[in-house]
Specification:
- The complex is a heteropentamer.
- By secondary structure, chain A is an all-alpha fold.
- Chain A has a single domain (89-320), classed as Orthogonal Bundle (MetI-like fold), CATH 1.10.3720.
- Chain A contains 14 helices and two strands, in the order ααααββαααααααααα.
- Chain A has helices at residues 2-29, 34-39, 46-55, 62-74, 88-123, 127-142, 145-159, 177-215, 218-225, 230-255, 257-268, 273-282, 286-314, 316-320; strands at residues 80-81, 86-87.
- Chain D is of the alpha/beta class.
- In chain D, strands 6-7-8-3-9-10 form a six-stranded mixed sheet, with helices on both faces.
- In chain D, α6 (157-170) packs parallel to α7.
- Chain E has a single domain, classed as MetI-like fold (Orthogonal Bundle).
- In chain E, α8 runs parallel beside α9 (246-253).
- The chains are: A mainly alpha, B alpha/beta, C alpha+beta, D alpha/beta, E mainly alpha.
- Chain A binds chain B through residues 3-4, 7-8, 11, 308, 311-312, 318-322, and chain B through 17-24.
- The structure holds adenosine-5'-triphosphate (2 copies) and magnesium ion (MG) (2 copies).
- One adenosine-5'-triphosphate binds at residues 15, 17, 28, 30, 50-56 of chain B.
- Chain A: The chain crosses the membrane at residues 12-30, 100-120, 132-158, 178-198, 244-268, 288-314.
- Chain A: Residues 96-311 form the ABC transmembrane type-1 domain.
- Chain A: Belongs to the binding-protein-dependent transport system permease family.
- Chain A: This is ABC transporter permease.
Chain lengths: 322, 273, 507, 268, 302
């Protein structure tokens, strides 16, 4: 396992270097004036521009800046955001857990929900139920997450008043312990619902196809020939074997959740990495953008790793074959 | 006896497999220092247990694999060093028939298309003569009337017909030797016989030689001039007398496991064991 | 209303936009101006009628030649960390921050000397008179920064105190939860005791305007400033009784404008500019973009500046909405209708309300006179680059803000901009006559200013490098529990709530 | 003696795309208790379909027609309620061995557990674990504790086929269908599996239906043979009789083909 | 599976592989329930897109006298804040969405397909490099691409397609790669090599047609994903304002959610409809292939 881990980490290094270089060059191409962004929509006094550019060495030649960046990176330093006036790493570490919380909660609902629907519609005895299930699934899947989020807010926050409209917790709360957890859940409910409905339905569709595929496998015949109950066949033989395609897709989706987070966090003012990314792009806070993207690249790499491990856990053949 | 058309010299083929995670490598010698001569016009049967490297050997003869060590030679020249002309000669001289006829024909090409590409690639006939050329070859493997097969897709042919098309396609280049990897095993018992007959007929008519890989010891006994027995990546025994006088332990075991197609003997065999 | 009561926390929603500093010397972001009212204070401010009110300067005198300004400072005032406030702080601020302050660009070059002869006197001597000088010492434009905190630092522009300020305002900075909120608590040393009444002010950072409104309707926040397009919706929600929407009297104009790139044809042709102006139905802009909560701009000088604005120059009369006339002008200019269109031009704007809505109205108006409009909706950074730095645009929509004097935000649209400075006249219009008129208007004595600004407005109305469409009205939505809001307008003539005066009625 | 399995005029017509395939077209089949019956015939002649229809392991198929009777100990399996059918499979009914042991074993479950699932319910002298080991030993596996903890892919083809057999035996069936139990195996391994089947058949006295197209297998194991072609039984005979004197031309051809290699070899 | 007869000459009724001819493919997909509905919906949308100028009562950028008018006789779907007719805009938006859907999916097919083919067929270092590049693109957020594109070239419809393509091609590449990896070891490919047929021939004529089925399904799915991405980008204000798109309408509707529900409901529903149509179409393609491929199917039922 250790060797495997090291191997994968080494494997990821070129990818990360490429990502960093790519973004560095890309940002070079995007016109942006961080100093202007700091001042707003009034002209920047030359003295101020000079002060900022000198302090943060914005005018160093590109190779020098790239060199410095990589050098810092080797020392675990993601640079200093002149816009936020804070180390990038600090900011990323502060925001990342929030996005992770949102994504984790989202997937924690979406995956089981989707699997359940997928298994139920895939194995149902009644065609009508399958039909109804798949229809509803498809319709819900087709609703864009961000729009769904807005609709949920209007219905459940504004009309019914059940949930807060935005944010990740009450600003004045002193709650601790269970109270705190409940508060968080209260605020998580709507974003997670918006997320889980779309992604859950995607999972459901994949799961259903996979279940149907599994149903065609010989060992299901064997299980029937053993005289097992329907439920036993489903839970013991179908669910696990149908999960494999899901693992790949879920792994990819979780790893790249940042893309979706941008929209979801925008809709719910969830102060995570997605909002940070948008904000940083809009203020040409290049180092911060790099930081966020590096984090997301790491997330992708990590999830690929987790997927491989999960694969081996779910399918014992993979450990030894090939 | 003439010089061998194909030969293996101390060939080793190692497969490196990585498991899914891509770390721990596994090396497996599918072939382990095998030497073999194949002569023009002879039928060489290769038998052996499953996984002993028979298909690997076939791939090497067909230059579908590169040997890890050792050399495969065509008329005495290593396959790696063939000149352009020699390479063209090699490709024309050595052809193949595969185990699963439906898999070895492109499922999305009609017979005429499949064969037409070969005609054009090797300039076997001009545009006007193409259809005639193909029909001639189809007829020669017993697909009559050939015209009725031209526009069919493989899945519109029976297994036996598919295998005939595959053989016809291999024969188009007038090869000197055909490497056939389990050409019978996916066919019905009743069709196996027909294909064997066809191969025999072709051999008589055109002098083409065969390297046949098969599990069917009865059939090999009937058709082969020479037999090689493989076991765990090596040829453990080779010769014309293998069935009559097996020398190696494994060969004996193999022969003993044959079920005689006669109830009394078969039952006796089970009782003995 | 009753007696003010102490206690309570107000949550106010802000657009975090691009907060990089709280120090309004270094940034002009509106949200930071709101916030500066909480922690900072200045020499003076305005009441609701635009009259100056003393703050840290109890009185001020101007020498007859208009060159020497003397401020008497309030005594026994303390910084939020307990240190005493003196004229040295004011001097320090002028010496160290003014050069970074975008508003002081006009003043700084003509400052001859600034002195603090005693702890409670501050004197500025100018090389030449500038009538707007006092407006430049307004608390919003010129907040006083603590010398004892910044002193000795080589680089005040990036000093950490810009993000954790020590100030003279009613509240002091406590914490900043990135992306969520910024918290201020009562400043125990505030000079205007017993104010403030509230324990703390929390700014909730909500980038999306609709979500600010949602939060207000749901009662999660007690204050926010709705965008023009939202006011009607906010009024709808008002009926629930949780909050009310108030119109703000302000003299910080916010005006939608269209810039023409006069470097190239056809915009170097006055007739074309006039035609395009007359083709725009500005009432429709007011109605659709601002939901009626704006008025058509009359001339280059905002009518909020009651002392300076001259109604005799009136765009509504000079360039009334008249598509036929516009068509005729374009014919004259040599752009006849061919296959249903005369020409194709690009309209550049930032893809955000209200700019996008303005652009849409303008587009359809221009379409109607046979001008095909290619829309280029861009991200702010890219827009800025394209319009101001590259000057690679045809026409461009933006909404410009200003402070309490044309010097602060109006002049920039018409003066010669040779350095491609962002947010300064991008049109390539460079007229010495205009530059002179601008300078004259700013320096003539108070009683001559209106006439001077009339000349100013006339030149603009003649040359039309930029056309001004509408002037927006400001509103805010406030929880009904929040009291003392009337007083707020005496404090903050501009755009800002006065949290020092506000208090919560106990439920 | 009453028949263990009595299939009467079974018709299984399947709908594929637009066409109807008469996979089984009026077949009668009889298996007496403790008897071993072979079904031979070329590919596509309906052998598997027959077995699957009788044991009701053909689902999600569109039947154009399914008629006839399959009386198992007098009860028609074709008309049986699913629950009754399940009980029959669970204990002392019939079970089935399939051709491809890899595809018919769950790849993600240890084989011991797969055997345990199939154990007949009810009181038993031995604890469950012991019963599994006993079964595994019975099908000729050694080192059973180790084997039980393996996943299917960790075993050789022969071992997997034995696991399949153990699973089939776990419910103590009276009738065992074996659908091409040895086609996927090496000659040497095939021999050993056949031996095992024969031993079990003799020890347990259970009825057996062996489906194959290898006449050699039938010759070695079965008492009686049905020859199928095109969905119909073309000949039914005692094994010895069939080999000595096939009556139907198709049977004759089949036997001739099987022997042909041998004869040719002898002729050469 | 066809019944293969032992006697040569008796041949099962000729059945051409379904994907061969376009007509046959259409007939095949129309036979599947989902595919039928999907195709009808797509045809409907395509018709709307083509005929938008004739059906739409107003131009896409035309201001009508009434702003924020509720749905009614004059304006079927109401008007937006600047008085544009939502019905007309939704109709015109069909063009953008379909164009993005088809365009991006097709471009992703070409880019991803080429990469996948090269990596899958040749293996070795080509595979290593190309698949790394693919991973790289999976790692970078789309928003960044779009901003870059907009910054460099201004807002243009083609750029939007390009950006969406950049976001989805890796999936396509991986799929094609997998297909080629699997198919290059097939016997018919070995046969072609033994017959000395050229490498381009093998890649394009032998393997490609056999690799296409799941790829086409994926293309249909990608089209729906592209529409959703476009909607998301429009929602972030990154869409091309010269072409009405549903995402843009949703962006504009944000500020009027509580005041003018019609501004967001109709474009939102349109997005759903298009996504559903593409998905049903993909389902149909799959079902059709399944019908062909699957032999005896097993199930849970007795
Ligand atoms: N591409 C490959 N990668 C890794 N290992 C392989 C590969 N091809 C074959 N092998 C292994 O090499 C060994 C020899 O395989 P080969 O296919 O030559 O055997 P065979 O004699 O043809 O067997 P069979 O009779 O089952 O066809 C086997 O153990 C097989 O698992
Ligand atoms: N689910 C199904 N749907 C349609 N046709 C089927 C189905 N199952 C079997 N068939 C067809 O029914 C016929 C009989 O098939 P069956 O599998 O019973 O033959 P078999 O004798 O077992 O052949 P093999 O020796 O190849 O296993 C074949 O033509 C087959 O294609
Ligand atoms: Mg082989
Ligand atoms: Mg069968």
């Amino acid at each position: 396992m250790l060797r495997f881990t090291i191997f994968r980490i080494l494997h990821a290094v070129p990818l990360l270097v490429a990502v960093i270089l790519a973004i560095f060059l890309m940002q070079q191409a995007i016109p942006g004036d961080p100093v202007q962004a700091m001042v707003g929509d009034f002209p920047v006094p030359p003295a101020f521009r000079e002060a900022i550019e000198k302090k943060y060495r914005l005018n160093d030649p590109l190779p020098v800046r790239i060199g410095t960046y990589f050098n810092n990176l080797l020392h675990g330093d993601l640079g200093f955001s002149y816009h936020a006036q804070r180390p990038v790493l600090d900011m990323v570490l502060e925001r990342a857990p929030r996005t992770i919380l949102l994504a984790a909660a989202g997937f924690a609902v979406a995956i089981p929900l989707g699997m359940l629907i997928g298994v139920l519609t895939g194995t149902t005895r009644r065609r009508s139920m399958d039909q109804a299930g798949t229809t509803v699934t498809l319709i819900l899947y087709a609703v864009p997450t961000f729009w769904l989020g807005q609709l949920l807010v209007i219905l459940f926050a504004l009309k019914l008043g059940w949930f807060p409209t935005q944010g990740m917790g009450p600003l004045l709360s002193q709650a601790t312990g269970l109270q705190w957890v409940l508060e968080r859940l209260h605020y998580l409910a709507l974003p997670v619902a918006a997320f889980a409905i779309h992604d859950g339905m995607r999972v459901a569709r994949i799961m259903r196809a996979s279940v149907i595929d599994t149903l065609g496998q010989g060992y299901i015949v064997t299980a029937r020939a053993k005289g097992l109950r329907r439920s036993a066949i489903i839970w013991r033989h179908i669910v696990r074997n149908s999960s494999l395609p899901l693992v790949t897709i879920a792994g990819y989706a979780i790893g790249s959740a940042l893309g979706g987070a941008v929209l979801l966090e925008t809709v719910f003012t969830w102060p995570g990495l997605g909002l940070l990314l948008i904000e940083s792009i809009r203020t040409s806070d290049n180092l911060m953008v790099m930081g966020v993207v590096i984090f997301s690249a790491l997330a992708v790499v990590t999830m690929n790793f987790v997927v491989d491990v999960l694969y081996a856990l779910i399918d014992p053949r993979i450990r030894h074959q090939r | 006896m003439t010089a061998p058309i194909l030969s293996l010299h101390e060939v080793t083929q190692t497969y490196v497999s990585r498991n899914q995670q891509g770390w721990r490598r596994r090396y497996q010698n599918a072939l382990d220092g095998v030497s073999l001569d194949v002569h023009e016009g002879e039928t060489l049967a290769i038998v052996g247990e499953s996984g002993s490297g028979k298909s690997t050997l076939a791939k090497l003869l067909l230059a579908l694999n590169k040997p890890t060590r050792g050399e495969v030679r065509f008329r005495g020249t290593s396959l790696q060093q063939l000149s352009g002309a020699q390479h063209a000669d090699y490709r024309r001289s050595v052809q193949a028939v595969f185990q699963d006829p439906s898999a070895s024909l492109n499922p999305r090409m009609q017979v005429a298309e499949s064969l037409g590409h070969v005609v054009r690639r090797h300039a076997l006939a001009d545009a006007d003569g193409e259809a005639g050329c193909i029909e001639g070859h189809l007829a020669s493997v017993g697909l009559v009337p050939p015209a009725s097969f031209m526009t069919r897709y493989p899945n519109q042919l029976s297994g036996g017909q598919q295998q005939r098309v595959a053989i016809a396609r291999a024969m188009m280049l007038a090869p000197r030797i055909i490497v056939a990897d389990e050409p019978l095993s996916s066919l019905d018992v009743s069709i196996q016989g027909q294909i064997l007959d066809l191969m025999r007929a072709l051999k008589q008519r055109t002098g083409v030689g065969f390297v046949i890989i098969s599990h069917d010891l009865h059939a090999m006994e009937a058709i082969a001039d020479r037999v090689a027995v493989m076991h765990q990546g090596r040829i453990v025994e080779m010769g014309t007398e293998v069935f009559a006088r097996p020398q190696h332990e494994y060969t004996k075991l193999l022969l003993a496991a044959r079920l005689p197609p006669d109830p009394r003997q078969a039952r006796a065999r089970l009782a003995i064991a | 209303q009753g007696q003010p009561q102490r206690g309570g926390t107000v949550i106010a929603a802000l657009d975090p936009g691009a907060i990089s500093s709280f120090n309004t010397h270094l940034t002009s972001l509106t949200s930071m101006l709101f916030m500066a009212d909480v922690w900072a204070d200045g020499l003076m401010t305005y009441d609701r009628h635009g009259k100056r009110l003393p703050r840290l300067a109890t009185e001020w005198t101007i020498s007859p030649d208009g060159k020497v300004y003397t401020f008497k400072l309030r005594q026994n005032v303390k910084w939020s960390d307990g240190q005493p406030f003196t004229s040295a702080d004011v001097l320090f601020t002028l010496n160290n921050f003014a050069k970074y302050n975008t508003y002081l660009g006009k003043l700084l070059p003509i400052v001859d000397k600034a002195e603090a002869p005693d702890p409670y006197t501050f004197v500025v001597t100018l090389k030449e008179p500038l009538t707007a000088t006092l407006d430049l010492f307004d608390k919003e434009v010129f907040p006083i920064m603590p010398k004892h905190v910044y002193e000795g630092s080589a680089d005040v522009a990036t000093h950490p105190a810009n993000r954790a300020p020590v100030g003279l305002g009613p509240f002091k900075f406590q914490s900043w939860d990135s992306g969520r909120s910024i918290t201020f608590v009562r400043n125990p040393f505030y000079w205007e005791a017993p104010k403030p009444y509230l324990d703390s002010v929390v700014f909730a950072l909500i980038p999306n305007p609709q979500q600010r409104l949602n939060a207000m309707m749901r009662g999660e926040i007690q204050w926010f400033r709705p965008e023009a397009a939202q006011v009607l919706a906010a009024r709808e929600g008002e009926k629930s009784g949780g909050y009310k929407v108030l119109r703000i009297e302000n003299n910080a104009p916010e005006r939608a404008v269209v810039d023409f790139n006069m470097r190239k044809a056809p915009f170097n042709n006055l007739k074309v500019r006039q035609a395009l102006f007359q083709a725009i139905d500005r009432k429709r802009v007011v109605a659709d973009v601002y939901q009626g909560l704006a008025e058509t701009a009359k001339n280059a000088i905002p009518n909020q500046f009651t002392n300076l604005y001259d109604p005799s120059v009136d765009y509504d009369k000079l360039y009334p909405y008249d598509p036929k006339k516009a068509g005729a002008l374009l014919d004259e200019a040599g752009y006849p209708m061919k296959d249903g269109k005369r020409m194709t031009i690009e309209l550049t704007y930032i893809t955000r309300p209200p700019y996008d809505a303005v652009a849409k109205v303008v587009q359809s108006n221009w379409n109607a006179v046979g001008v095909d409009v290619k829309m280029a909706g861009l991200d702010p950074q890219i827009w800025t680059d394209k319009v101001y730095k590259q000057n690679a645009f045809d026409t461009s929509v933006i909404s410009l803000t200003g402070r309490t004097n044309p010097v602060l935000g109006v002049d920039r649209s018409y003066i010669c901009n040779t350095g491609n400075l962002p947010f300064v006249n991008p049109t390539g219009y460079c007229n010495p006559e205009m530059d002179k008129a601008v300078n004259t208007a700013a320096t003539v004595p108070l009683d001559k200013q209106r006439a001077a600004y009339k000349v100013y407005a006339e030149i603009v109305a003649r040359d039309l490098n930029q056309i001004t469409l509408a002037s927006q009205q400001m509103h805010e939505a406030v929880s009904t529990r929040l009291q003392g809001l009337d007083a707020q307008f005496d404090f903050s003539f501009n755009t800002h709530p006065n949290w020092a005066e506000a208090w919560f009625a106990k439920k | 003696m009453e028949a263990l399995l009595d299939v009467r005029d079974l018709k299984v017509h399947l709908r594929t795309g637009g066409a109807v395939v008469r996979a089984v077209d009026g077949v009668d089949l009889l298996v007496m208790p403790g008897e071993c019956v072979g079904i031979v015939g070329e590919s596509g002649s309906g052998k598997s379909t027959l077995a699957r229809a009788v044991s009701r392991l053909m689902a999600n198929v569109e039947f154009a027609e399914l008629s006839g009777q399959a009386l198992f100990n007098g009860a028609d399996t074709l008309a049986m309620a699913p629950e009754a059918l399940r009980r029959l499979r669970r204990k002392a009914g019939f079970s089935m061995i399939f051709q491809d042991p890899m595809g018919y074993l769950n790849p993600t479950m240890r084989v011991g557990k797969q055997v345990r699932e199939a154990l007949s319910p009810g009181e038993h002298a031995m604890p469950e674990q012991e019963r599994i080991y006993a079964l595994l030993r019975e099908v000729g596996l050694r080192d059973v504790e180790y084997v039980a903890r393996r996943y299917p892919h960790e075993l050789s083809g022969g071992m997997r086929q034995r696991i399949m057999i153990a699973i089939a035996l776990a419910s103590e069936p009276q009738l065992l269908f074996a659908d091409e139990p040895t086609t996927a195996l090496d000659a040497t391994v095939q021999l050993r599996v056949l031996e095992t089947l024969k031993r079990l058949h003799q020890q347990r006295r259970m009825g057996m239906v062996i489906i194959t197209h290898d006449l050699g297998v039938v010759a070695a194991l079965c008492d009686r043979v049905y020859v199928m072609n095109g969905g119909k039984v073309v000949e039914e005979a005692d094994t010895l009789a069939l080999f000595d004197a096939p009556r139907h031309p198709y049977s004759a051809r089949l036997i001739q083909m099987t022997r042909r290699g041998r004869e040719a070899a002898e002729a050469a | 599976m066809t019944t293969t007869s032992a006697t040569p000459g008796i041949v099962p009724s000729p059945r051409r592989p379904v994907l061969h001819g376009l007509g046959a493919a259409l007939r095949g997909i129309l036979r599947t329930r989902h595919g039928f509905i999907g195709l009808v919906l797509l045809a409907f949308l395509a018709l709307v897109a083509l005929c938008a100028p004739w059906i739409a009562p107003y131009g896409p950028f035309q201001q009508t006298p009434l702003s924020l008018a509720a749905p009614g006789a004059g304006h079927l779907f109401g008007t937006d804040n600047v008085g544009r007719d939502i019905f007309s805009m939704v109709l015109y938006g069909t063009r953008a969405s379909l164009a993005i859907g088809f365009g991006a999916a097709f471009a992703a097919l070409v880019v991803g397909g080429s990469v996948g083919i090269l990596a899958g067929y040749f293996g070795g270092w080509i595979e290593a490099v190309l698949m790394r590049v693919t991973e790289l693109f999976q790692t970078l957020p789309v928003v960044l691409f779009v901003l870059l594109a907009v910054a460099l070239f201004g807002t243009s419809f083609w750029l939007l397609i390009a950006a969406v393509t950049l976001a989805i091609w890796p999936v396509e590449a991986r799929l094609v790669y997998g297909q080629y990896l699997k198919l290059r070891d097939r016997e018919f490919v070995a046969a072609a090599r033994v017959l000395d047929l050229s490498t381009p021939h093998i890649i394009l004529r032998e393997i490609l047609p056999n690799a296409m089925q799941p790829v086409i399904v994926q293309v249909a799915l990608d089209a729906s994903v592209a529409i959703l991405i476009e909607a998301g980008l429009g929602f972030l204000g990154l869409s091309d304002p010269n072409m009405v798109s549903w995402g843009q309408l949703l962006f504009a509707a944000q500020d009027f959610m509580s005041q003018a529900w019609w501004m967001s409901v109709f474009p939102g529903a349109a997005i759903c409809l298009a996504v559903i149509a593409f998905n049903l179409f993909a389902d149909g393609l799959n079902e059709m292939a399944d019908n062909r491929r699957k032999g005896p199917q097993v199930g849970l039922e007795d």
